Structures are given as structure tokens and as C-alpha cells.
Amino acid sequence: MEEQLKRINKFLSESGFCSRREADRLISEGRVTINGVVPEMGTKVSEKDEIRVNGKLIRENREKPIYLAFNKPTGIECTTNQAVRNNIVDYINYTERIFPIGRLDKASEGLIFMTNDGDIVNKILRARNNHEKEYIVTVDKPITDRFIQKMGNGVPILDTVTRKCKVEQINANVFKIVLTQGLNRQIRRMCEFLGYEVTALKRVRIINITLDIPVGRYRDLTASEILELNQLIEPSSKTEEASLPKVEIKKPMASN
Q: What pLDDT score was predicted for residue 129?
């Protein structure tokens, strides 16, 4: 029987160690070995190969996938680097290795997904227009109609113009915005360009999942949420078919 081979970055993501993007970075930095040899990008491996990251043996993940919705407090860094103070992994202190899908600024709070499934990271990041993220934003002075119009039509930041997006005023200093792109500190930079400073920023929705838990707590995504999520991001998946994992619902953790 022919051995099943897969690219090293896919192996690392499916093992639950990290996302494919992070795996590519580790490989390029020479921190990954296959049978004691530093591989080239794109090298394929089989289950017989010995794969190590920083000398640690990585085994194929045969556990069920984990998908958590977490309400990140301000002050927590979205990094798996546990040398960083107040990192998200130590804060959640989950029993198995998990990592965040995407980022949420240290100064921001709200919804972020945590998982051990590196493949879903790539599907979500490729989902583009189906990857809506909704935020509630408070700024330092009264909002004008001009501000709402310009935010919605696109603002020049980071050598580009932001995509058109939905923006709605909630009260004098608070608005709701729905983005389909994730530029670095995008909302803060957009507001700054228009002469406003963000004083509070909370993400309240990612795609079909709405924030419904207290700050500092998490819950498992339900089977129906994961099914709908996979259906929404499926058009962006070119190589793997999205599947519905069985999800065990756990009680939310207490705040630290």
C-alpha cells in the first residue's frame, strides 16, 4: 500500500501544533527537522518520519478537533509564545494545546476563536467576503455623518484603501462596523486618519458566531455552529472538504 504523504506545514497544522502560516515561519527559521534534517519548504512527510520542532517530537493528532469561542479581555496578547506576558494560551489555561485564529489587539476585547485545527485557520482566512467581523467602537468625540460615510466608503491606510464596509452609528460616540478584511489595527488607523481616537473596541461577531459569554470566559462552539461555519467558508476551501466534527459541550470556565 502506498504511503500517504502530506506537506510538512499541513502535518504540523493537523497535529494541532500551530497554523500552516506559523508552520511556514518555523520551517523558514530552521526550527523544524525531519529525521534530524532541516527540510526545505514544501517537503512531504509520512507517518514513519520523525518530525521535531525545537527538538520536541510532534505526533499526528488523533484527538477530536477543539473549537472554542473566547471573550478576550483587554490586556491579553493573542500569541502562542508563552514567554510573552499575559499571553492568551496561559490565560485560558486549556488542558490541550490550542491556538487563536487570527488576532485581536491587546487593547481590544471580544470574540476570538481558539482551536487545535490548523486547517480551519486557513479556510477562515481565505473566506474573504464571507469572513465578516463585527465590532462595537467607542471614539473620543461625537460622530458625524461625514465620519460614517467616509468609514464606510474606504479610508487610505497602510498603502492601500480599505474595502467598503457597513458602518452604523449607535449613539453620539459609538458606532458599529462590519469588516471583511483584517489589516493591522485597521479600525484604529481608519479612525485616526479621520481625526478620531478609539477609546474602546469590542469584537461581537465572527462570521456566524455572536459573542454571548462574559469577558474572560469561553465555550465550545456547538455542532450546528460548526456546520454553518464550514458551509460559509467552504467556497474558499480549494483542497480539503470541510467536515462536521462531533463537539462535546463543556461548561464555561470561571474568570481568572
A: 60
Domain range 67-127+213-236, CATH class: alpha beta
Measured distance CA(133)–CA(205) in Å, rounded: 6
The CATH fold of domain 132-206: Alpha-Beta Plaits (3.30.70)
Q: What is the mean pLDDT of the chain?
A: 86
Q: What is the dihedral of CA 66, 70, 73, 77, to 10 degrees?
A: 30
Over range 188-213, report the average pLDDT.
97
Options 3.10.290.10, 3.40.50.1390, 3.50.50.60, 3.30.70.260; which CATH number does 6-57 get?
Answer: 3.10.290.10
Mean pLDDT of 231-250: 49
Q: CATH 3.30.70.580 spans which residues of the chain?
A: 67-127+213-236
Q: Is 96 exposed, middle or buried (0-12, 13-18, 19+ CB in 10 A)?
A: exposed
The residues, ordered by sequence, that sit 6+ positions from 240 with a Cβ below 8 Å of its Cβ are: 119, 123
Catalytic residue among 49, 90, 105, 117: 105
Terminal-to-terminal C-alpha distance of the chain: 51
φ, ψ for residue 14 (rounded to 5)? Answer: -75, -20
Q: In the chain, where does the domain assigned CATH 3.30.70.1560 lie?
A: 132-206
What's the full length of the chain, in residues?
256
SS3 109: strand
pTM of the model: 0.71
Least confident residue range of 9-13, 139-143, 195-199, 222-226: 9-13
> Does 105 qualify as catalytic in the annotation?
yes
